[in-house]
Amino acid sequence: MSFRNRVEKEILVIDGAMGTLLQQRGLPSGWCPDEWNVSHPEVIQEVHRLYLEAGADIITTNTFGAIRSKLADYGLEDRVKELNQAAVTLAKEVAKPYGALVAGSIGPLGKFLQPLGEISFDEAYQQFFEQCQAMVEAGVDLILFETFGDIGEMRVALIAAADAGDVPVVASFTFDESGRTFTGTDPETAAVVVERLGVSAIGVNCSVGPRQLADVVQRLTQSTNLPILVSPNAGMPEMVEGQTVFRETPEMMADYAVRFVEYGASILGGCCGTTPLHIKAIRQSVKELTLKPRHRLFGLRLASRVKTATIDPKGMPVAIGERLNPTGKKALQAEIREGKTEITRRDALAQVAAGSAILDVNVGVGGVDQVAAMERAVNAVQVLVDAPLCIDSTDPQVIEQALKNYHGKALINSVNGEEQSLDTILPLAKRYGAALIGLTLDDQGIPATAKERLAVARKLMQRVEELGIPKQDLMIDTLVLTVSAQPEGVPETLNAIRYIKRDLGLTTSLGVSNVSFGLPNRGLINTAFFAMALAAGLDAAILNPQDQRMMETLRAAAVLTGRDVRAEQYIAREQTAQGGNQPPKVSEPVASTPLEVLYQAVLSGDKDNVVDHINKAIDSGLSPMELLDKALIPGIEEVGRRYGAGIYFLPQLMMAGETMTKSFERLKPELAKGPSRKLGTVILATVKGDIHDIGKNILSVMLANHGFEVIDLGKNVDNQEILQAAIAHQADIIALSALMTTTMVHMPDCIAKVKEAGLSCKVMVGGAAVTDQYAQEIGADGYAFDAVEAVDLAKKLVS
Amino acid sequence: MIEVAVGTTILEAARLAGVNLAAPCGGTGRCGKCLVKIVSQQGEGWLLACKTVVTDDLSVELATQPPVILEAAETTAIPLDPAVQRDDQGELYHQQGFPLLPSANQREEVLGLAVDVGTTTLVAYLYNLLDGSLLAVNSVVNGQRIFGADVISRLGYALQGQENYQKLRQRLLDSLNDLIERCCQSVGTTTDLVRELVVVGNTPIMHFFLNLPIQGLAVAPFKPYQKGPFYRKAAELEVTTVPQAICYVPPFIGGFVGSDALAAAVVQNFGSAGTEKMLVDIGTNGEILLQVGEQLLAASVPAGPALEGAGIECGMVASAGAISRVTLDYDVRLEVIGGGRATGICGSGLVDALAEMLRLGLIDSSGKLLPASQVPPIVSFKIKQRLKQVGENLRFVLAEQVYLSQKDIRAVQLAKAAVAGGIQLVTTEAQVSHKPLLVLLAGGFGSYLNPSNALRIGLLGEQRNMNPQQVGNAAGAGAVLLLLSYQSRQRAEQLSQRFIHRELAAEANFQAVFLEQMAFPTREW
């Protein structure tokens, strides 16, 4: 039975590692393993046999590196066909008596695609095609692309495999411990992309052990209905006496395999470090389990390299950002002509920040090589923002160049019912795994009535499905006419949306702003029309996300049409908007006890709520001393540490300091009753002639936080006044700050006056103009670079 | 070649020898930028000039390359009306009434110079006063640099005594005389034909030029000795190359906001009713001029030298080897001045780098540099690989020898908080409307800056509707205007009275605004 049949009905077991077993059988280090298919076929067959005996339903050929650019490392680049066909043939020979299937293993090229690396789409395609074709000719049962770390490369490989023949293909990725591939793709996004490129199953193999894969496998099962392959390493590699060792035992691997089947995986095997014993154990534990087919419905999904965006007929409506379009934009036109991308990049970022889930990209400028311009635009944007792209062109060459370069699943804007459009655009969507916006017009023009547009939509849907493109990847644009010219156009557009959603179950989109062409105050008409369209069931709109009214209308309409379930997103957004412009909070573990809450309040500078937290803590029975010693002081010390490490900066220091100040104010009555915890008295001032005091102000707060009594004389302070204050308050320390080299000259004078007056007071100095050396020269008792150092210095000076 | 006593530092020796060795921190050992190569009998090595004392015969090689100097200035057509003209009899006269040495004959050329004396460089424009044609543009480094990159350091040095003051003054005059000679030589004319000098600069530098006491300027409230305008004979001021010329220095606006800012304001038509606009000259001592309706506000912002590369670990002035432009896509894309290997990064490169790092999410809006594991997945691995942990410190490596550290980012935050804070305070006071504000970026740094990157890092504050325009050396263009149009001097003098000068550090809420402006904007607008 074929792979396609079996994978629908059975849980299948695939083999384990080949490499180690070959090494054990004498493969010299540095020798091309794929070459042994010709020079040592009996050894390869022996290894295959061991796995077949262990119960593997599928064996993988010894061809992981048998692609042109990797064979070139050994000077064997002209033997691609020979090595691959030898490998397939010997595998089939051994597999036949067991009724097992032979999977042609193909690994990544070992090079990155342009522009990240050197190899072009076409060059990569040639190499994958060459290897696939050789295998198909030799009668392989399926092709397994394994250990791929880059979605862009997988796309090329899958397209090449589809061209090489009607053979099932499995796309297996390798994910690291963060749950993403090397170039950042998450499991859902990987699934979204490969589903449209003709795969029979998707998988994960290598890099990590089964323990680390639980999350990835779950995410995969939740993201696709495709069968899922899981071939972990036998654990994470460890070095033991100079050898790499994998620790997972066959039993442990088998236990995980069972768990993976429970999640929904159905092809189980092993990668590096696994042996026939592991496979045998896996087989014993999974073979009798029941397959769990999944039948989830997914909406229209698009993907960038690292993120999936869904247009769901029942979910939130989606804003497609329209600004990357040179029509009427002189600066953008000029930039496209000059081959630059500065405005493009800025606008892409601004639109995503303003809430676009998808970005429309159009490079339609006269007299310009649009194919090259589109490539530039796609490459500039896809490395900067994670929003999937909508390729806005009707020129097949421009579209194709975009799709070749785009490492994701794009939306093509657009195809329509004209034969020429269907003939040129649909095949591109099929080949490159893209979704489509379909316009409801055809060779007869724009239909006047909603019913006629429904008919065109139906035709589009049929043609799309004929090519094997799933219908949910077709989004219908029911066309927006200018209301001032054709007032009857509005109800027809809106009704068309209703009919199409009801009768065909497809998603719908519109380019809203056309409705107001020629009228004054266009924004007003656009907004009202948008609301009406959303009420009719519109799923997506191409608009300017920086138009606040439009975005507000979208969010409000989502609530009113029940698409923002329980208004959750709306409420959350309105609450943050009221919160205003706050500095970002460092993400912390969740605080639960009153002491933890208080500690976090200091760390995050939450001066508005800290008194509340203190009151609650005291109500819960904690003493003010405990609050101080176990939460507040550790908090401010941690802030100081983070500041020193560069994680926090002055604003955070100040906010934390002010939080402490509020805390002290609240606790003053209680603390006054207890023993004095005063470390000492400090007279603080910025010297005469100097009016810079921000650093000094921060120090003032910090010293008080740490238990000093601070007499802050302010700025531009005469030495006489400083001296008098020191005497009056019996100060332990005088702390002087100067920001200018012209004013720091007052410092030695102050030190002299202190000596003259016979005070035991210490003098410490700081400020941007002052250095350690200067402090020593003038006989100061200490120098501090910043507020945090100054607090430590002050503590030393009083001890 | 110079002989010095044992124990003299290399920096002191350089000053004595009249050599142009830049000492941005004034020789206090804080900036690490005065590295020189010492070759002596004990061997060779790179050492700090301010810390290394001479104990034996040695030779010193300087590393400095001439910085890129902005000379281009936008000028608009001016009705020709210089102060020095020929009357109907062909006799030379000065409109202010000063007696002039008669010219040799009626066909003799009558030349004038407009000079913009900056803290770091001097630029001069040589004009034929009879027909208003530009003959030459030249520039030199301000020799005062050896006493410190910023004016406060120089004032500090000068305050130590009259001898020091005169040393500083002499350095300025030497640079000016040198510049004048070069200008004349470059077009094959002679200095005796120069009849007038219009000189503009910030208040402290002009005090040195005019030989005025500086005590008031050195400390709060930073009062000029006199406000001006000033007419002096060049001979009196020891501008020895053109003793016959009259010198005109336009009035100061207030505090450190000097004649250069006034000249820029005049040439950019401040004072005439109409558009709201702001002129910003960002430098170590930056100036902000704002016009809203009838209100004219001026403020200086002590941004510090971070935006000129000082205090930045791999920072340098904008000269050969400096990374001046940075873009981040799949990898780092650099433009290096002079096209060779990158040896450091200058102000414009710094702003570019930070803007791009913010865009990609390598720095969060509080200014924290993120390790590779915390950076968004969209970022390519080539960029991630440039985030390197070196001991306790995280760095972003731009080129083999050039990186940015967390400390560097903090230094820029301090500088930009000063500028943005200043802008925020004056625009709030003047009640700028929500219409797009025309922001004229003047001066060297402003001209090499990428305006949209400046906006991305919040250098110009939070105002979302800014329309930045680069206007080149506006102070120089203003000096030219004042040279060629006597009438414009009256306008300038009136304008100087109308401006209200704000000493920002003295403002009650400066601290709050300064701290607020330290964070980077969270998004592109």
UniProtKB/TrEMBL annotation, chain A:
Domain Pterin-binding: 317-561
EC number: 2.1.1.13
Annotated Zn(2+) binding sites: C206, C271, C272
Gene3D superfamilies reported in the protein's UniProt record: Cobalamin-binding domain, Dihydropteroate synthase-like, Homocysteine-binding-like domain, Methionine synthase domain
Presence of keyword DNA repair: no
B12-binding domain boundaries: 679-799
SUPFAM superfamilies the UniProt entry points to: Cobalamin (vitamin B12)-binding domain, Dihydropteroate synthetase-like, Homocysteine S-methyltransferase, Methionine synthase domain
Reaction it catalyzes: (6S)-5-methyl-5,6,7,8-tetrahydrofolate + L-homocysteine = (6S)-5,6,7,8-tetrahydrofolate + L-methionine
Ranges for domain B12-binding N-terminal: 585-679
GO biological process: homocysteine metabolic process; methylation; tetrahydrofolate metabolic process
Cofactors required: methylcob(III)alamin; Zn(2+)
Domain of life: Bacteria
NCBIfam families: PRK07535.1
PANTHER family associated with the record: METHIONINE SYNTHASE
Protein name from the UniProt record: Methionine synthase
High-level lineage: Bacteria, Bacillati, Bacillota, Clostridia, Eubacteriales
From TrEMBL, chain B:
Domain 2Fe-2S ferredoxin-type as annotated: residue spans: 1-66
GO molecular function: iron-sulfur cluster binding
InterPro entries reported for this sequence: 2Fe-2S_ferredoxin-like_sf, 2Fe-2S_ferredoxin-type, ATPase_NBD, Beta-grasp_dom_sf, Corrinoid_activation_enz, Raco-like_middle, Raco-like_middle_sf, RACo_C
CDD domains cross-referenced by the UniProt entry: fer2
Pfam families per record: Fer2 (PF00111), RACo_C_ter (PF14574), Raco_middle (PF17651)
PANTHER family in UniProt: IRON-SULFUR CLUSTER PROTEIN (PTHR42895:SF2), IRON-SULFUR CLUSTER-BINDING PROTEIN-RELATED (PTHR42895)
Entry protein name: Uncharacterized 2Fe-2 and 4Fe-4S clusters-containing protein, contains DUF4445 domain
Species name: Desulforamulus aeronauticus DSM 10349
